[in-house]
Amino acid sequence: MKIERGAEKRKRAMGKIGPNGLHLPLDLSLSSPLPVCVCLNSAGFLPLSVIAAYVLNQLTSLNVNTKRDSSGSLGSESRMPSHSQSEDPLRYLPFTSQIDLNFWHKLSTKKLNELKLSEEPVKFRAEYDINHNIPRAIASIGYNALREENYPQLSLRGVLFNKNSIESFKRCDKNNLVKEAVIKMVEAIISGEALRHPSEHLCPIILLSFADLKKFDYVYWCAFPALGLPPQVKFTQVDPLRLINDDDFNEDKMNRIAGISEGKMFVLLDRITLEELPLEEVRRKCSTHVYVVFADPSGDANFPGWPLRGLILTIAYHMPEIANSEHTGVYTVISLRGSRIHNYNKSRIFRVRLQKVSLDSEFMSLSKFVGWEENQQGENKPRRLNLSSSMDPKMLAESAVDLNLKLMRWRLAPDINLECVSKTKCLLLGSVTPEYKKETSEAIKQLEDLIEDHDAIFLLLDTREARWLPTLFGAAKKKIVINAALGFDTFLVMRHGVGGSNELGCYFCNDVVAPTNSTRDRSLDQQCTVSRPGISQMAAGFATELMVSLLSHPKRNDAPAESPVEQIGDPEGCATDLVGTALNNSSVLGPVPHQIRYFLSRYHFMTPNSTAFYMCTACSPKVVSEYMSSGFDFIFKALTEENFLEKFTGLADMHAITKDIDIIALGDSDNESSMSNGSLLG
Hints:
This protein is of the alpha+beta class and about 675 residues long. The chain has 4 domains: about 10-60, no CATH class; about 95-230, 3-Layer(aba) Sandwich (Cytidine Deaminase, domain 2), CATH 3.40.140; about 235-365, Ubiquitin-like modifier-activating enzyme ATG7 C-terminal domain (Cytidine Deaminase, domain 2, 3-Layer(aba) Sandwich), CATH 3.40.140; about 425-655, NAD(P)-binding Rossmann-like Domain (Rossmann fold, 3-Layer(aba) Sandwich), CATH 3.40.50. Helices cover about 30% and strands about 20% of the residues. It is built from 22 helices and 24 strands. Strands 3, 10, 11, 12, 13, 14, 15 and 16 form an 8-stranded mixed β-sheet that branches. Strands 5, 7, 8, 9, 17 and 18 form a 6-stranded mixed β-sheet that branches. α5 (about 175-190) packs across α9 and α15 (about 465-475) packs across α18. This is Ubiquitin-like modifier-activating enzyme ATG7.
């Protein structure tokens, strides 16, 4: 058997000369084609047995088992197609979906505000890339997937089916969804619309989902619908994928191909001139006259990506009638991979043999409809994603606040005790407080338990009398109580004292009467808190900051009040210090005032202090002691018996003493009598 002598360049590429003159390859990787054996002995002949043994050895080393499913896609154990005399069926690497977490947030918003109860299909876009270093083909569904314009060129047209319940998700006919998508694709192929707009029709995607907006729990299943060919139809791979090199195209030609094809999913090129042709030319051009170029998302060295599947079916339907007996044509396919900066150095080239198909009703009845994606466990089931920890608005708000607080410790307030602040349990009593309709004793017990279970109590109530019971509970349980009261253009924010060294008073310590029904015999505008728009936000901010400053103070709730020599908004020192403490007792956030009073009409602040009143109806030792001993009975009397608190605290006696004091007032009659007596004033 005589074999031609190879060129020196090919010798260097193949390996070294063996002892019998046989050219032995040095590197036989799985992606290498069968090496060419060259005889260099003097006679120019090599025994047939030597050649046969060598070829058999190479065929054995290259024949690796490949696992495939019936749809024409590859399973997880895929390697390289066997190279033998028979041609392998054309196989494709399926897409793997990758959904951005922000997409679910966008879908949740759209479901809540737009879709509501509608289960109508929604258009979206998935995109893919050809410049990656992983073997999988990734179809990404990002934050902007639901936009209807300005989508990437390498994108898949998708339809989203979002169900209202998990039961509706389960009942949905998944096979029918894929079948309908494939039928639409086939209709576009037959009409020629797929040739004019291939990226719109040849590689669809379906996303079936159920979004539990309450729990931020998402169940979803992606499908990339495709047609499984009938058994009698064969699309085969004539040779394996291999890297494009100078033997195929030099650098200049490759640059031209890349420049024409960049950013396009499918391109048809003239084989001689390398000019781009309309895809409709496949109806007229023979397979030997064109190159088929496609943007390949596959990173596998041996198999093309999923987008080629729809294009191959389109070409097989529209290609010219073949004169040969098998009615087949062999097309050269360029799989464009990599990036321009690297001259698309990962691109591959291979040939496929296509058999002309009819796509008639008989053909479709024998075909399969495939495309549903496997889950992470390799099962043909949907996937589940729970984002409650990352998408819950409460947790998002907590995360943002936590970041803001921790940045304070870098430079601005390195000594602030953030753990103390974050662990403080706050109770807000105001317009959002539940209205208790049970018996009075049960309602009072529930309020008492709430105050017992929290560290800081905010009194954000409309009337004075509504503040009395929480003030009493807070004083008895030594809780931080922050009080906020609004006027039309004024507000008061104060902290209640808890006895001890600071001797600070509560909201009722300046009163000499017990709280009564302040809304009785009042018009509507007097019954409601009518205030200027900015007052409530300002008061809320000061109330929060007052609590944080108090928590940051070494003495916490026993922190002494500010003793201003000259206060902001009070340059003349009009706000009198009644307690007398120095500024060196401040917390890490500054002095902690007792009260903050603001007058919006004058843009004027005051931070006065007031001492605890021993006859106070809410926090005096006598009242607190009686509550601790008598409990509900004492509270019930205070709520039902008129003047009970005034009599109990001694305010009634004080009123009586005041009435007995003779106050000499100078009236008009006194003036006249004095003048008639000849007396002159001052």
